[in-house]
Design goal:
Elements (H helix, E strand, L loop, with lengths): L3 E12 L2 E12 L3 E5 L6 H8 L7 E6 L8 H5 L2 E5 L10 H9 L7 H10 L13 H13 L5 E5 L7 H8 L1 H8 L3 E6 L2 H7 L2 E6 L2 E7 H7 L5 H9 L10
Parallel strand pairs: 3-7, 3-8, 5-6, 6-7
Antiparallel strand pairs: 1-2, 1-4, 8-9
């Protein structure tokens, strides 16, 4: 098996009386698209925040590229591209200023690739971020997350609230191209239809625990071709798109 880009062992995290993650273990080898699926509040974002070093493990361990993201944030974050649902970009910047600003943080920034993405996403270089639509902001966020060709791309509910065309941009050729180049994608969503289109491996999380984790083809075979949403309901008891955990 290839080297694990992400290795989580018995990770536990509580917020007051609420257990957000309960002894979560996960190992994701390099070079595939991993779908992390669950209802809103199931623990997806809390897990991702541990991977990014934004939260320290209360119990268990988290390693990304073999490193502790809290102890070595530069060593980890310099190799990760990240896009979240919030996608907070500086509204006062123009698109070209955002590109130049982001470029300064990444020695491996690829100017030609950044320009290719800008044109592919139909982003006006002179447009102010604050004047962009939500879909255009998502494209701009994806551009700066991709242009230095990160080894790991983390997408946390990136298409929530976006129109189908923008979702296609995020979930289609870009994600597949990254995986085909031997890099890794972790794609978190409660929209299982989207995950089903692109994921090689699916991990289902429910109320802070891993309900199921397996290659998508194997899941489909075990459940005789059922949709990912139907498989989720069979294991969790409710739809990820309609349920909201506490």
């Amino acid at each position: 098996m290839s080297e694990s880009v992400i290795a989580v062992s018995d990770l536990t995290r509580r917020f007051g009386a609420t257990t957000a993650l309960d002894s979560v273990s996960l190992s994701l080898p390099r070079g595939a698209v991993y779908g992390l699926v669950g209802a809103n509040g199931a623990g997806k974002t809390t897990l991702i925040k541990h991977l990014l070093g934004l939260l320290r493990a209360e119990g268990g361990s988290v390693r990304v590229f073999g490193l502790d993201p809290v102890a070595d944030p530069v060593g980890v974050l310099s190799r990760i591209g990240y896009l979240s649902e919030e996608n907070d970009l500086p509204g006062w910047m123009r698109v070209d200023e955002l590109i130049r600003y982001s470029r300064a943080f990444h020695p491996a920034w690829d100017d030609d690739y950044a320009e290719e993405l800008r044109q592919t996403f139909a982003l006006d270089a002179a447009a102010k971020i604050k004047h962009l639509s939500k879909g255009q902001k998502a494209r701009a966020g994806l551009l700066v997350a991709l242009a230095y060709r990160p080894e790991l791309l983390v997408l946390d509910e990136p298409s929530s609230g976006l129109d189908p065309i923008v979702r296609r941009d995020i979930l289609g050729a870009v994600i597949r191209t990254i995986a085909d180049e031997g890099r890794t994608v972790l794609f978190s969503s409660h929209l299982l239809e989207e995950v089903e289109q692109v994921a090689d491996h699916v991990t289902m999380i429910h109320k802070g625990t891993i309900a199921l984790s397996a290659p998508l083809k194997a899941l489909k075979a075990w459940h005789r071709g059922a949709s990912l949403d139907e498989i989720f309901v069979a294991h969790v008891g409710s739809s990820a798109a309609s349920a909201t955990d506490a």
